Amino acid sequence: MFRRSFNRFYTLWNFLPKNLFEQFRRIANFYFLIIFLVQVTVDTPTSPVTSGLPLFFVITVTAIKQGYEDWLRHRADNEVNKSTVYIIENAKRVRKESEKIKVGDVVEVQADETFPCDLILLSSCTSDGTCYVTTASLDGESNCKTHYAVRDTIALCTAESIDTLRAAIECEQPQPDLYKFVGRINIYSNSLEAVARSLGPENLLLKGATLKNTKKIYGVAVYTGMETKMALNYQGKSQKRSAVEKSINAFLIVYLFILLAKAAVCTTLKYVWQSTPYNDEPWYNQKTQKERETLKVLKMFTDFLSFMVLFNFIIPVSMYVTVEMQKFLGSFFISWDKDFYDEEINEGALVNTSDLNEELGQVDYIFTDKTGTLTENSMEFIECCIDGHKYKGVAPETDGLSQTDGPLTYFDKADKNREELFLRALCLCHTVEVKTSDAVDGPPESAELTYMSSSPDEIALVKGAKKYGFTFVGIRNGHMRVENQRKEIEVYELLHTLNFDSVRRRMSVIVKTQAGDILLFCKGADSAVFPRVQNHEIELTKAHVERNAMDGYRTLCVAFKEISPDDYERINRQLIEAKMALQDREEKMEKVFDDIETNMNLIGATAVEDKLQDQAAETIEALHAAGLKVWVLTGDKMETAKSTCYACRLFQTSTELLELTTKTIEESERKEDRLHELLIEYRKKLLHDFPKSTRSLKKAWTEHQEYGLIIDGSTLSLILNSSQDSSSNNYKSIFLQICMKCTAVLCCRMAPLQKAQIVRMVKNLKGSPITLSIGDGANDVSMILESHVGIGIKGKEGRQAARNSDYAVPKFKHLKKLLLAHGHLYYVRIAHLVQYFFYKPLYDAAYLTMYNICFTSLPILAYSLLEQHINIDTLASDPRLYMKISDNAMLQLGPFLYWTFLAAFEGTVFFFGTYFLFQTSSLEENAKVYGNWTFGTIVFTVLVFTVTLKLALDTRFWTWINHFVIWGSLAFYVFFSFFWGGIIWPFLKQQRMYFVFAQMLSSVSTWLAIVLLIFISLFPEILLIVLKNVRRRSARNPNLELPMLLSYKHIDSGYS
């Protein structure tokens, strides 16, 4: 079963039809195709070249750009599809391409290689059949996880021995949940009966994960191609369209109706005028016999089409050429921005799709991954507390090292035995592995130990214990070895590990000392440990934990208890029975764990810091100030994610948290009833604090209690996939109402596909808000593809996210400038460009063609690339300015009508001003009379100068390029007019423009008329600019009043 290409939108065979279909979905392209066909088939006033050539140019340029971008994605896919893997066939290693792996193939994977499909681990180079794996590209966790082979296949660690294995694997149908797998392997030997062993997620190696610190493993392929868990979590790629493009289509429809109306009115007036015989058939223009015999209805229809062709330049096809060039060339400014350059990876920003530049200025919701995006995934042990005493930064033997959270008379410092017991607990209660070193047999005295674990917290705690003199040396033959402060090796037999799970929120180990004592050490969240220890032990430690939590640290409480031999026999029997169960194994083990972890004694607590990325907190604060809603979607545990949200200031200390998690739901026997109760309760609470009449939700956040929502993956599944007894749509509706009223939302334990579901749910809200997703791993690809704009972080977890994204940046902090500065400017520029093209409304075929291509296109292109109506540093430092352009403010009905009426006013001035000028029969000293072509040339000259000078008035950021193209295009117009009318062109049938321009400018009256008409046309705009400047100077708070465009929104909360 082959791996399909994930990232491509086109193939070689469907590129032409699919690309043409996508391009002709644009109303302007489709319209000009129809016009071109009409010009070819019907006798029209203009040549088919005038619409066919620009259309062909637009289609070709766009196809080349999109084809090149897709080819880059195809090349990246091929790197994976064609990668080499080794299959064991007939006791030999056979080289194959990864796309040719079939279910049942035994695959050999070497250290640091990525698993090509989902494999069941059969054996490894280690004697105990374990291997270490990082799943950073799947769930964001970059620490090593331990996976196990079933004990019957551990010894099969060569190609020859693995080939002798005869077994059958039964497993569930492919499903996207990364954390669940149920299967069974039946191993056949010489005996008649097969040996059956259960298979779980600890035996499954997922495609996309990487083998670490293990030289070699053998695994059998169970899911391949599109059935792997990674593929099932992939969101299909679709063509993204910006809000500006949708606005363009809406404007085009309006102008199309105007065009149809104009053509209909003109056709009607033509036949009204021709109703008198003399006008219908004058003596100098007699009809042919064929024209007389033509049906009148058909003649009216062809006349209607001719008028449509005559007026078709009201819809500017060249706008799409300019927009495509603006997007393509504008994207280089992101790549060239030195602020996006990261010295650590020696790279800057990358633009994969230039079609969405302006969408960066319209974002409403940001969905961000946590690990590797907000954090560096680097844990550091900060401090601990033992019996209420705080230990920070120095070894416990030193005098004066501790401080008390309570009264000084309570403790001088913790008892020495309690200190050692606490540190032993940190060294023993974990699943950390030590990287083996063949050269070292005993404990290394000077060599640095390398710790590996599925949880970065555990490594930080083990290193913290080492800092205080207790070193975990490793585990050998089921015995854990610890070096104490006296450099003595203590050996503990590991009897059982009670693994961490999100419901219990704690983990424990049962160990046996050399003296024969059996101890249970437990660590977990304070809410999971405090109810299971003695009440009098809680108070002092609780104060320490609460203070650490407010500081944004991740806290764990540590407890222990002694187990008598008789109790251990019972516990051991219960644990073995639960582990061997093939059905309801998790529930049975959870019950046994719950019985064991009771009546413990609290020793202390720890505080670990998950280092945030540089300026992550400041970036989130700026995004909030810009009116953006930030949601964190992570596959990590709730406690970890919650701590990070506090640290990065997504949650404030005053924020009241509303939880919809497995823990809160499982308080009731019937989960859906409890979920419904919580949803109703939270909605009532929020509606009480947020009245419906609130004008601005952001303003309401500052006036009322702030709320944050926390939800996990399993609860989200309940909401989205409710049973028939309850209304799924009702759950979803209430859930969304709650989300909208919360200042921040945290979604934890999310599968990749669930992240995409969340994004899709918000995308489909009323008003269709613009969404942006940002992440750094393959687990973020689905939400990156689902959102309107996808940002990939060029992080440590591979480049899957960066390859599938629309834009890639090295760090999360770069999002601030990308949106607030680049996004703002891109939107303002392209909005002005679009309105300008509809505003500059035409005449001789050569002039019609040159008007949009040469006379007026270069100035607006330069404006749309270089304009900074507000300084870029000001935009980045004042996030409130982002709200001024939100909700597509500059392309709403108001600004559109303003530009349309401005064009209508100026068109009226051009035509009737020149018309009244022509009331004088002679404009020249020699009494020559001007004709239609002179009339048209005057109008056209005024038009070119007016629309170009209008752009000069709008320009606030002048560069030499602006000066060159604005004044150069006017000079070129004058030169072209002299040149085009000064030569008799042999290829033209009619010389209608011969010497017209030169003759026209020989009249002083014409010069005066042109200058006067330009001034009258621009006077309203000049008056508006003067009034704005007067108003700005008289404003109460001039520092906040920056130059603003006419179509900016007025935001009370932004400048209150």
From TrEMBL:
GO terms for biological process: phospholipid translocation. GO terms for molecular function: ATP binding; ATP hydrolysis activity; ATPase-coupled intramembrane lipid transporter activity; magnesium ion binding. Mg(2+) binds at residues 369, 371, 776, 780. This is Phospholipid-transporting ATPase. It is a multi-pass membrane protein. PROSITE patterns: ATPASE_E1_E2 (PS00154). It holds the Pfam family E1-E2_ATPase. Component of a P4-ATPase flippase complex which consists of a catalytic alpha subunit ATP11C and an accessory beta subunit TMEM30A. It is found in: Cell membrane; Early endosome membrane; Endoplasmic reticulum membrane; Membrane. Belongs to the cation transport ATPase (P-type) (TC 3.A.3) family. Type IV subfamily. It comes from the Eukaryota. Keywords: ATP-binding, Cell membrane, Endoplasmic reticulum, Endosome, Lipid transport, Magnesium, Membrane, Metal-binding, Nucleotide-binding, Phosphoprotein, Translocase, Transmembrane, Transmembrane helix, Transport. It catalyses: a 1,2-diacyl-sn-glycero-3-phosphoethanolamine(out) + ATP + H2O = a 1,2-diacyl-sn-glycero-3-phosphoethanolamine(in) + ADP + phosphate + H(+); a 1,2-diacyl-sn-glycero-3-phospho-L-serine(out) + ATP + H2O = a 1,2-diacyl-sn-glycero-3-phospho-L-serine(in) + ADP + phosphate + H(+); ATP + H2O + phospholipidSide 1 = ADP + phosphate + phospholipidSide 2. ATP binds at residues 369-371, 458, 500, 523, 554, 634-636, 749, 755, 779-780. Its EC number is 7.6.2.1. CDD domains: P-type_ATPase_APLT_Dnf-like. Its cofactor is Mg(2+). Residues 10-51 form the P-type ATPase N-terminal domain. SUPFAM superfamilies: Calcium ATPase, transduction domain A, Calcium ATPase, transmembrane domain M, HAD-like, Metal cation-transporting ATPase, ATP-binding domain N. The active site is at 369 (4-aspartylphosphate intermediate). One of its GO terms (cellular component) is plasma membrane.
